[in-house]
Hints:
CATH architecture: Alpha-Beta Complex
Number of helices: 2
Oligomer: single chain
Number of domains: 1
Amino acid sequence: MKSTKIVTSFLTQDGKYLILKRSNKVRTMKDLWAGISGIIEGNEEPLYRAKKEIHEETNITEDQITLIRAASQMRTDSPQYENHEWLIFPFLFSVNNPKIKLNWENSEYQWITPTDLTKFQIVPSLEKVLASLL
């Protein structure tokens, strides 16, 4: 089975969590809601990739976030590819009054409570990833 390592991060402020709607320009999971995610390249440290993705996708810099928690790596089957799994490295960061500027990978964002997640069409296992950080 082929594995792809990815990071999925959530930003939190005032008891709410940031989710992003993946644009129709991305290769996978188009128009689904997700955390801030990206593929870990080579021997990158997951935390380094998480901070890099946060900056790329929201324009929030490393000095504006504080790591609250890193959860254990999780595995989930890929619904798009046969014999493929995602190895997810979950992170939770706090942020105060960010000015979010999305790049092309995402089309919308929402601040939600964990129970709100059921109202959105989400990427596989997103609710488990968020739950692992709470």
